[in-house]
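Researcher: Please translate sequence to structure tokens.
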Amino acid sequence: MSELLELSTEREVEPLLESPSEQFLLSNIILLSEKSDSSKILKENGRVYTPIFIVNNILDLSDYSGEKILLKHVIDNSCGDGAFLTEIVRRYCLEFLKKNHNLAQLKGELEFYIHGIEIDKEECNKCKNNLTHVASNYLDNKITWDILTEDSLLCSRFDGKMDFVLGNPPYVRVHNLKEQYTNIKNFSYAKNGMTDLFIVFYEIGLRMLNDHGTLGYISPSSLFNSVACSTFRKDTIERKKLCQIVNLEHFQVFNATTYTTIVILKNDNTNESIEYFNYDQNQLKPCFLERLNYTDFFYKDVFYLGSKDNLVKLRAIQEFVPNSHHSIEVKNGFATLKDDFFIQDFNFDSPFLIPIIKASTGKMTKCIFPYENGKIVPFQTIEKDQNLVRLFLNNQKDLENRAIEKSGYWYGFGRSQGINDLNKSKISVNTIIKSLKDLKINSCPPGMGVYSGLYIVSSYSYEAIRKILYTPEFLDYIKSLSKYKSGGYYTFSSKDLKQYLQYQLQER
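Model: Translation complete:
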């Protein structure tokens, strides 16, 4: 191939869309056009197509670039139609042709060093065709691609041989795994919690690496804190595999509600620290923040990510042990499991109606409360209230079909939480916020119920609690927990809120 031809083919395969925003738009158009598969296939196979900017991010972070990629084995073990492998082939060809124009040798190296596994035969064939199309920009030779139609869970051919394992492993929840469930439970990383298939692919990928190999994946950010990923977290820290984390936070790469992270592991790493990045949504690339020691972010088997300063503050809160005289409880509100029946603006009076507040919005309304002193009243007592008994009998079938706790009654709440605290003073708090203006903190007198959120029972005043929560420090704390919700929001649990309040009250 002449130098002129080489330059011309390089230009032909360069992206036509230059700006990151155009690339993101194009990627989403492609994703939508490829969404011909049913949701059933997506749930069972975990097939999610990867935008080119994410492919490039992972390859760059994994150092799959430059002359050093030549004569190095690389695999995508869940390659789909070849999103990663097509870019890998493109990069390999460009690097090879910078110094060598032996096309027969290039053909041989593409066949020998680039590998893929895909369980779906149709996707596997698409992948081969896509690789051939990319390679045709550089050589006319017919290439026999090493792309296997196999189950990566059962494939050991590549173990210990790969210099790079790169890709986007499938996301499949345990209840959708079907016949693969038994095979999955044989993996060490799949022993805990509600397993997702992606965590098993970390174990498969690490097994495929040689002694100096690098793994680069994008996967759900539940990797940071879920019970299912606890063995992975402990193992990669103990064996010093973890090198880089890109926290994409609220930036949703895929057309789903999944929040993702990019993780780079290296077999020859010796540092007990990571390079920590956030993500520039405008430039579509990682931005280095700082180097974090393992001990900075790995605490109680969870990865907590953020600036070192915020992590120091978070650790102080989490390690705090309150004095016994500090009395404060944070609990979940009522769980009727049938709010549209129990909670309404009823147009009649009844001794079994109480005022109630929706913690998530602060809206006040009424609630049927068939309890007295924390215990459900006999239905015969309710039958004396004609308005109420008519409602119950008209809705009995729906009420009986709820997943009521074992000790429950068909005409009672689905869960017993919050019932015993009705006659206590409470402070309601919503659990999903983006900024301090989203906080809804309301004082609830004895006799008022709370649902759709949390409530605080303590000896501290409403003003004292409100003063502690309406602070930038509280918002930083919630963000550092990395519990993401759509639209840029964060959520937190009763345990999270209680720990923060105890710490701040002690400090003050």
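Researcher: Any highlights?
Model: DSSP finds 19 helices and 24 strands in the chain.
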